[in-house]
Amino acid sequence: DAKTTQPPSMDCAEGRAANLPCNHSTISGNEYVYWYRQIHSQGPQYIIHGLKNNETNEMASLIITEDRKSSTLILPHATLRDTAVYYCIVSPGTASKLTFGTGTRLQVTL
Amino acid sequence: GAVVSQHPSRVICKSGTSVKIECRSLDFQATTMFWYRQFPKQSLMLMATSNEGSKATYEQGVEKDKFLINHASLTLSTLTVTSAHPEDSSFYICSARGTKLADYEQYFGPGTRLTVT
Which candidate, B36, B31, B72, B80, places its Cα nearest to that of B55? Predict the structure, then answer.
């Protein structure tokens, strides 16, 4: 599986957009980019995923570069409840196992 | 989204005893379940993958005789930690995929915190 690189931590003011970057320079053509988050002492929660095109849902937007070597998760209006560890995962196909990296700890502050 | 539950949420046991953790899919049939372990301030590590009615596939380095996984029905998988030791203390999390869910959908349980004294 392709590896991902994320900054260990980020801060964001409440109400502002949180932009979380992820590098996956060795991603293969059939690998999807997934984003999950884990609030302290809970199970991970699916946020969004994509292959080539940018994606948007009620939680977030996913921007994937044209060469697919990096992506950005955007939380448009961060709230305190968005404080969590965010994991960027690349996985071959849509039904494969997920390998979690170290993630980015996002702290949303007042 | 679909719901996955785990029981118990917390368990404390004595060294040398065995502990069983249940993972249930409440509103869908889980054809595949995954078990993860997470040590404090670390990421989730996949332990094994189980398909209903089949033997589990363990990740490299995970002792299958110590971590017994049973996936006998489409709504229940169990993880039994046999002869638990303090180093087995961890946060155990299951997840599930199902036939009526989209291929990408994988739902996680809330986790079980195991403390071995």
Answer: B72
